[in-house]
Write a structure and sequence with these properties.
- It is found in: Cell membrane.
- The chain is mainly alpha-helical.
- It has 13 helices and 2 strands.
- It has a domain of about 210 residues.
- The longest helix has 27 residues.
- The chain starts with a helix and ends with a helix.
Amino acid sequence: MSASIFVGVLELGLLWGIMVLGVYLTFRILDFPDLTVDGSFTLGAAIAAHTIIIGYDPWLGTALALVGGALAGLVTGFLHTQLRITPLLAGILSMIALYSINLRIMGKSMISLLRMDTIYTDIISWGISEYFSVLILGLTATAVVILLLYLFLETEVGLALRATGDNEQMIRSLGVNTNTMKMIGLSLSNTLIAFSGALIAQKQGFADVGMGIGMIIVGLASVIIGEVLIGNLTLLRALVAVVMGSIIYRLVIAIVLQLELVAPTDLKLFTAIIVTLALSSPVIKEFVAGRGAREKGEKNAGC
């Protein structure tokens, strides 16, 4: 694999890693299967792209993308906590609504950002090499997000948020409003996801209404890969692990495409298979261990 491809993998892994942190926040910390991801990722890209196209500063567009993601998370939280809609269905409803909202924001199915100033062109204007501009921004943004997220989750509110995911009934008995915790968690999660969408759109040079399809699977794959290979013994290690999982996932995809083991059109299927195998690994291990024990028992009985 050439150095340019490796740098590209690292860039995408870091930018996607911010989205993965958002998925980790709901999937692992809050224990909330949030499918808003597919819509809020595109929402961040749509807001940033539209803001840039109409002539405003790309940093403003990126900031507005964060606000849009936060609002999307609040809507999902409202549907679940106030209207008593199940988490899965609440996320699906938000995702479906966001498809139309994203089309409304963009005005068409795709916005091109070619020859437009983005946050990356601003970074290049500061004297940073064009070759490393995306990598430096991705590394800086991811490190800041990990640090801020870690510090937040160590606060009293953050601990209550983590406790809500661990044992909702217990923390509610201590006087914590779990509905508020869920609203905070969902809002923060989708803020990160929309932020990632804004960065990816500016990196790729376009925003597409379908670019968020399957994001939840990509996020889950990265979370599981990171946890399996690096572990999650401490909070900080877990946060770093999921970002590393994102990088490893992009590396695997790049290798598979380079070796032409999978057609580009089959990447979603390939990812789904990875997630299925990872999620079912305890059952597979139990089956293999049980089969080994049976074979050993039959061998001893034969002796």
